[in-house]
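ARCHIVE CARD
Drawer: 12
Card no.: 0347
Subject: one protein chain, sequence and derived structure
Cross-reference: see card 0346
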Amino acid sequence: MAFELPKGAFEVEHDEPDDLVDGEVPEDPATAAAREAQQALLLSQELRRPIDHAVKMATMSAWMLAIFAVISLPGVFSSFTGFFIVAGLGACSFFEFRGRNALRGMNPQGASMLARNQWVLGAVIVVYALSNVVATLGGAGHYDQAIQATPQLEQILGSDGGRGGLGGLMKSLTLMYYVLVGVGGAVGQLFMWRYHARRRPLVEAFVADTPGWIQEPVNASGGPSKVGQAA
């Protein structure tokens, strides 16, 4: 009589993992954490890019304002307008640096400070242009001062009353120049105000959507995150 083993007597049953679908191997927790950290770094870099650009622009603007204020120092003693221009440029440079530092530290108030500073700078430019227009029309412009210092120039260029003379042309060009400076300064600062005002929601989004371990190096140093740069 033949002895037969029951079918499946030596088969071992294995429990299938619940998270194993279609033969896929579940992702290692360390690998998943590293991938999420990399995605967070990439997102923070995307959010930082326009903010860093605004920081660079504010830095360049602050230094230029400081240089123009130093160059204009001799005008402090010549007229009240000269004093106003130097004081205005100096104040704008100071607040431009402050706004830059706050923005670099991811403080939304930095963007607001820079936006307000553009209005002040625009007012300084407009006052500068208007004062020179009034001085030119009133006979106290740079051309008239040059004529008073060197009377021979009037014989060469002609009087300002003669429309056909070079003196009249010089005055017309001077007036046109300062009108363009005033209009261009006002329009340019309006665009800069809009530019910096739009940085505030970007900073708020960065603070809200970026993990603390990325923000801490930024806030501690006031500059870009070293971790983010390394990535």
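Annotation on reverse: Confidence is low (pLDDT under 50) at residues 223-231. DSSP finds nine helices and no strands in the chain.
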